[in-house]
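To illustrate this point, what follows is a protein record of this kind.

___
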Amino acid sequence: MVSQIHVLSLLTTLLPFLLLLSKPCKILATENIIAKTCHLTQFPQDCVSNLESDPRSSGADLTGLSRIALELSTTKVNNTATELFNFLQNATDYPTWSFFQTCFHYYNTSVYQITPESIVAFDEKKYDKTYQILDATNKAIVDCNNLGHTVGNLRVNDINTKNYRFINDTMTILHQLF
């Protein structure tokens, strides 16, 4: 009886310390899966930064990280289409308007593919179809970038570069699933 009380007292004392020690291990394991996954991508620092910006990544496995990366890519494309539309509305001359109109068209076309279709395909485990949609989106980004208009192009080029890099990384992560 005395030894049972002693063991219970010891467990009660040690349990909080054991719980404290287990949390850093989980955090370390999460950082390791993100780092391991992103290490295989072309732009690992961007990949880590983007995935760590979403709190869901902390408990995700490879499939979860792929889904999170896909959702982040979708959000980036949607936000860029909105930003390009705003640039288009504020264009002061025809060449600038034409540039933003064309880029907006590329992104807007991608939005209708990447938003519903890529998520549905992913959920149906049709990772190759999701990959193809992301690839088409990256081609639209490159087409926008290749227009070569100088007015406003630095801002659009920066956005395009960030989007291209992360979608490319998302494709690499996704490719690990098939």
